[in-house]
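A favour, since you know our structure tokens better than I do. Just paste the record in under my message, thanks.
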Amino acid sequence: MPDVMPVRLVLASASPARRKTLQAAGIEPDVLVSGVDESLVVTERAEDLCLELARLKAQAVVARLRPADDQRTLVLGCDSVLAFDGQILGKPADPDDATARWERMRGRSGVLHSGHCLVDVEAGRQAEAVASTVVHFADISDHEIATYVGTGEPLAVAGAFTIDGLGGPFVERIEGDPSTVVGLSLPLLRRLVAELDLRITDLWTKVAPGNQSVEPLG
């Protein structure tokens, strides 16, 4: 491949979990929140909903950026929803909603869908796809539900649960890529980057082992 200009990744999401996932994989993103009103998109398919929202978030941020002559800028929009019992579940409306969800979900399973839209600002190209993972929930008690909801964590995330936070003990197992459940699939990101004629290593800015800092790689 020819020499590649420095690559800047802009994450169009306020999610700390998505940012930490990228950082742990050696990618230090800039963060620019899209401000998209998620309630404006209505569809009956969870996969369509999360992908359309990911697309809108990425495009909203792209509209606020200017192409650069000395680097390539990629904008990544993501959105996650849980498909459960024929319903599409985003973030709970309030603690009562989160409690009711967990009373239904415990001991059962759902599918977490995460839409990804990656835009190459300078080239005007984009690649997009959905990653899906089956999540099996533990049969937790009423006390555990009340205590978990009381922390506030379930109110901030799609499906009212996490696997990388306080909700981790309440997920028995998953079928698929764990980072999808966090909201950003690293294997899928690698494939989307390749569709834009780049390599995931072009985005590396550090090496995790030993906290060694290095110059941009790739």
Summary: The two ends are 11 Å apart (CA to CA). The chain has one domain: 7-208. The beta strands are 7-11, 30-31, 72-84, 87-89, 109-120, 125-137, 171-175, 206-207, 212-213. The chain has six helices and nine strands.
